[in-house]
């Protein structure tokens, strides 16, 4: 499915966002560990949530998570503690190139029986469920935070653990989100320095409110920065969010976007600002916002240095390479090294027509669609990849245009 994207210069829209994919994933695992259902989790409005829910409801021995990285990590830990059950968990060819070794190593130290069915350190996995036991663990902080979250969620049933995180902690807000959902369900884990103490215990059946997804909201804040005259309201969003990507509110302020919080929704306002001569930000806590910020800053011709981007290499695509390749089609040159992306404000007139390849990555497809504000009529190939996190994204964009 390909979309030719036209975005009106002044749009008016009240947008209902998908529910937080990150909170939903944690809630589904914890509810399964508690052996209870939750009607609030009965609706799954993106592919990743549906993959997780379907796997948890299955009694089969072959689990296919497709390209859902969160499901691969969280379900690996979940099945590792399901005594007496043996499953093989696999995914797409891209998933087979996304490392999982640090998680498997940690779970094995807790007594898990996990075998690689292909290349060492990568899916597919065969998991023989066992009763895990609490230990003192050490994990590196510069690996995926989902490895850490997966271990944390199963640890109360294993008798509790003390988990020490070595070195720089990337994506810490996602770890804090995990601890917040655990706390809501009766397990009060605590940070002490770089260690997390998780007590033994059983999860309670407390209902979990799933708020709107701030990662999805980021594309609309970007549109406000690019189209100041537009009128945009977003729901359901809260100021005191568990989601680290709420940081998009502060990240967009230097670009003229002011977020007004109201009950269960926000209104985006334009404030007159002088754009920064150089935008510098450490993105290690909010890596999913990098595509949004990189594309927006390029379109505004604001030079930038974004650090803390190392883990973008192992997402649904190599997002550093994908952004560099696709932005070059629009006339913007990105330079990068292992942990940094840079843009010096350059621009050359692109050729026509402009066709964007999202590299099978939902966030690349959505972020690059923002370019239609300055380059109307661009085509996004394989646009259906957005169903991974935001199925209605292009429908909402096209509806906006049809109203003008």
- CATH A-level architecture of the largest domain: Alpha-beta prism
Physical arrangement of strands within the biggest beta sheet: 2-11-13-12
Q: What gyration radius follows from the Cα positions, in whole Å?
A: 21 Å
- CATH class of the largest domain, please? Alpha Beta
Secondary structure tally, helices:
12
Which band does the percent of strand residues land in? 15-25%
Count of individual domains: 2
Whole-Å distance between the termini?
24 Å
Most strands sheet: 4 strands, mixed
CATH superfamily of the largest domain: Enolpyruvate transferase domain
Average pLDDT works out at: 93
Q: Could you say what the CATH topology of the largest domain is called?
A: UDP-n-acetylglucosamine1-carboxyvinyl-transferase, Chain
Helix content: 25-40%
* CA-based shape: globular
Structural class: alpha/beta
Q: Total strand count, please?
A: 19
Poorly predicted regions are 400-404
Structure description:
This protein has 404 residues and is α/β, with parallel strands linked by helices. The chain has two domains: 3-18 and 211-403, UDP-n-acetylglucosamine1-carboxyvinyl-transferase, Chain, CATH 3.65.10; 21-198, UDP-n-acetylglucosamine1-carboxyvinyl-transferase, Chain (Alpha-beta prism). It is 31% helix and 19% strand. The protein is built from twelve helices and 19 strands. The chain has a four-stranded mixed β-sheet with strand order 2-11-13-12, with helices on one face. Strands 3-4-6-5 form a four-stranded mixed β-sheet, covered by helices on one side. Residues 400-404 have low confidence and may be disordered.
């Amino acid at each position: 499915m390909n979309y030719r994207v036209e975005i009106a210069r002044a749009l008016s829209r009240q947008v209902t966002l998908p529910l937080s994919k990150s909170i939903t994933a944690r809630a589904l695992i914890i509810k399964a560990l508690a052996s209870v259902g939750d009607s609030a989790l009965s609706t799954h409005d993106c592919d990743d949530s549906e993959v997780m829910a379907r796997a948890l409801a299955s009694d089969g021995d072959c689990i296919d998570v497709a390209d859902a990285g969160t499901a691969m990590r969280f379900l690996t830990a979940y099945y590792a503690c399901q005594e007496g059950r043996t499953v093989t968990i696999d995914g797409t060819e891209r998933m087979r190139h996304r490392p999982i070794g640090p998680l498997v190593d940690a779970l094995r130290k807790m007594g898990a029986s996990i075998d690689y069915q292909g290349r060492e350190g990568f899916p597919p996995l065969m998991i023989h469920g066992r009763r895990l036991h609490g230990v003192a663990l050490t994990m590196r902080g510069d690996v995926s935070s989902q490895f850490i979250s997966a271990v944390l969620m199963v640890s109360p049933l294993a008798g509790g653990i003390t988990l020490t995180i070595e070195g720089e902690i990337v994506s810490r807000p996602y770890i804090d989100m995990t601890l917040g959902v655990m706390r809501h369900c009766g397990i009060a884990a605590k940070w002490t320095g770089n260690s997390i103490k998780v007590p033994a215990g059983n999860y309670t059946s407390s209902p979990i409110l799933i708020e709107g997804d701030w990662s999805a909201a980021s594309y609309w804040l970007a549109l406000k920065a690019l189209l100041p005259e537009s009128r945009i309201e977003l729901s359901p969003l809260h100021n005191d969010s568990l989601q680290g990507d709420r940081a998009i509110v502060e990240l967009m302020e230097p670009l003229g976007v002011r977020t007004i919080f109201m009950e269960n929704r926000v209104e985006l306002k334009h404030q007159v600002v002088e754009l920064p001569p150089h935008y510098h930000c450490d993105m290690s806590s909010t890596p999913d916002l990098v595509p949004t910020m990189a594309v927006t800053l390029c379109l505004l011709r604001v030079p930038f240095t974004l650090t803390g981007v190392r883990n973008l290499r192992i997402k649904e695509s190599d997002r550093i390479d994908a952004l560099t390749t696709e932005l070059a089609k629009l006339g913007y040159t990105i330079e990068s090294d292992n942990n940094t992306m840079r843009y010096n404000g350059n621009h050359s007139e692109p050729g026509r027509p402009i066709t964007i390849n999202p590299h099978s990555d939902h966030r690349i497809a959505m972020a690059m669609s923002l370019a239609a504000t300055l380059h109307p009529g661009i085509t996004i190939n394989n646009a259906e990849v957005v169903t991974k996190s935001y199925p209605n994204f292009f429908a909402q964009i096209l509806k906006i245009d049809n109203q003008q």
